[in-house]
Design goal:
By secondary structure, this protein is mainly beta. The chain has one domain. It contains one helix and 17 strands. The strands form two sheets. A 14-stranded antiparallel beta sheet has the order 8-7-6-5-4-3-2-1-17-16-15-14-13-10. A three-stranded mixed beta sheet has the order 9-11-12, with no helix packed on it. The chain is globular, with a radius of gyration of 15 Å. It starts with 11 loop residues before the first strand and ends with a strand. The N terminus is likely disordered. This is Glycolipid-binding domain-containing protein.
């Protein structure tokens, strides 16, 4: 699979959430870092999430800071990875995340960019890319088993536990353009 055709990412991207969640996400893209913000309402509950994800040159997640603001208050977490599959959560070992190299934030369409940049796959190859999944409202962190199957240069079939399936569409820079039922990129 080809990498970004431009060799560099745009300075920012933005998505509008659709269906179950009403809101938007803006992310600022820098070499080795994604810095984003999401504001949304889901099931009548409002939240604002800010995050910073640091990754190495191979797009392996190394550090994640997430803050969630809700009517119940503000919470923050700090995840660190050694890049080989060992994680800490707020400074303590997180063995439930052993073996994972990606993070997936419930409040972010952009985090589906990480494994696609990291993986090199021929068409029709299926790759397991399970991730440390961070929920938006309470910042609970758990393992999320998921797969990506490359359909062509811009489309991947995505599945996650519980039977969720979607065909994700990416641009030439391998940023999500369309995440059916979840988000659509508008900038």
């Amino acid at each position: 699979m080809k990498r970004s055709s431009t060799g560099r990412l745009p300075p920012f991207a933005a998505w509008r959430f659709v269906d179950a969640v009403d809101g938007f996400e803006v992310v600022y893209l820098e070499p080795g870092r994604l810095r984003g913000h999401t504001s949304a309402i889901e099931d009548g509950r409002a939240y604002a999430v800010s995050y910073e994800i640091t990754h190495d040159e191979g797009w392996v997640t190394r550090e994640v800071r997430v803050t969630s603001d809700t009517v119940g208050g503000r919470r923050s977490i700090h995840l660190r990875s050694d890049g080989q599959g060992s994680w800490t959560l707020d400074g303590s070992a997180a063995p439930q995340l052993d073996g994972l190299v990606d993070v997936d934030l419930e409040a972010s369409a952009c985090t589906n960019t990480l494994p696609v940049h990291r993986l090199t796959m021929p068409v029709d190859e299926v790759v397991v890319a399970s991730a440390a999944y961070v929920q938006a409202l309470d910042l609970t962190v758990r393992r999320l088993d998921q797969t990506y199957r490359r359909l062509d240069d811009h489309r991947f079939a995505y599945t996650s536990e519980g039977g969720f399936e979607a065909e994700l569409v990416y641009d030439d820079d391998l940023l999500v353009v369309e995440y059916p039922g979840i988000a659509v990129r508008f900038s």
